[in-house]
Specification:
Elements (H helix, E strand, L loop, with lengths): L8 H11 L10 H7 L4 E2 L5 H9 L13 E5 L5 E5 L3 H5 L7 H18 L6 H8 L20
Antiparallel strand pairs: 1-3, 2-3
Length: 151
């Protein structure tokens, strides 16, 4: 059996800064935004994700979080997150689980939302009213990968 790896606190912190793009700011652009948001940036306090993007990407402006490379959705614990658009499936469906019974409610809610929205945007309160659900309950549909939000 190999000896355990011994790391210092400084080594661990340096590694975390590097993999989270915090040791140096990335150049402006969609690739950098995708890298910055690849693990999701919590946005529960509106625009908190923008601060995280600013720490990681040069040239970040007030509307950078709206770049097409990024989307906003409900993530773990149904908090708002900004993630790379191409990671929607990983960030949502990956949380769905394998139990078919656990998939019923999210899939039903997502289908009802699709029927009501028909590709349009709608405030969560209006979507809840239109589906007969409390707006907070619609968050369960996010794990289907088909529901995006916008603060």
């Amino acid at each position: 059996m190999a000896a355990p790896l011994t790391l210092t606190r400084d080594q661990i912190l340096a590694y975390r800064r590097r993999v989270q793009a915090l040791d140096r700011r990335l150049p402006a652009g969609a690739d950098s935004l995708r890298t910055a948001a690849q693990a999701g940036l919590q946005d529960s306090m509106p625009r908190a994700a923008l601060l995280s993007i600013h720490a990681r990407v040069e040239g970040t402006g007030p509307s950078t979080w709206e770049d097409p490379a990024l989307v906003q959705l409900w993530g773990p614990r149904y908090s708002a997150y900004v993630v790379a658009a191409h990671d929607i499936g990983i960030f949502t469906v990956g949380r769905l689980g394998e139990d078919p019974r656990a998939r019923v409610l999210p899939e039903q809610l997502a289908e009802r939302l699709r029927t009501v929205l028909r590709g349009r945007r709608m405030k969560d309160a209006d979507a809840g009213l239109s589906t007969g659900e409390h707006p907070n309950r619609l968050r369960y549909a996010t794990v289907t990968g088909s529901v995006l939000i916008r603060w």
